[in-house]
What does this fold into?
Amino acid sequence: MSAAAKTFGALLALTAATFGLSFAGLPSWAGAAAALAIAVAKAALVAAVFMGLSRERASSRLVLVVAALLVAILAGLGAADVATR
Amino acid sequence: MSHVALERGPREAEVHARSARLGMWVFLGSEAMLFAALLALYAAYRAAYPGAFAAGVIHSERLMGSVNTVALLTASWLAAEALELVKGARPRAASLALAGAAALGVVFLALKTVEYARHIRLGAVPGPGYAFAPIAGAGGKVYFALYYAATGLHALHVAIGVCVLGWVAMGAWRGRYGPRAEEHAGLEMGALYWHFVDVMWLFLWPLFYLVR
It folds into this structure.
């Protein structure tokens, strides 16, 4: 079985877990935290295996790290601004 | 600048392929910012209107959204396999995998259209025409405005991705791509774009369909 096929299997399992969690009746914040944590894990799998980031050079990985950092700053500050008005 | 392609040695071609990948990562990084701004608004307005957002998610098509998640993940897997197939000098098989991925993208768009039609029929439209009685007030308007903005922007990316996948599938069928990195850079760029579209959905799905 190819690495991509194994990754696909893992992604389906994580998708089923996210779907199942939505029926667990968790409080909103806990449900969101769990679902987003699983989404981050799935995104990391797609980036590492499907997008080949694990065999990519450091320069390309650096782009992803910077992008993730900027997304966190943009989303964090943007949310803080609107929420504290 | 066509002279670049004329006298390119193997080493130069490899550097060219690597540069193309780096450029694509930079492009995808900047695309992520576009979605990040919408996710920031989602977080802020969910904090401001928790009841309306929870009700909005309850009124979403959970099963349809989840089927769409599986469709996009499967399409992403097929695109990843297509790259391996072309590296193994099997361009026709790669073409079929890419065509399958594009078809799943069409399935995604079809289901999204059905969802939009249901929302619109119930009066859950963006802007001043909003008339969805179960979630009255500003919170409902904000939720559905964000819903349409985020999922609409994503659907536009899916539509572009379907065209890109269809294009590289045809190219692969005609033998445009070879096993060496510099011979299949176009296919690889198309697949990278598709994976990005998939990754964005992985975040939109729980936020608009699952977290109540």
In short: The radius of gyration of chain B is 20 Å. The mean pLDDT of chain B is 92.
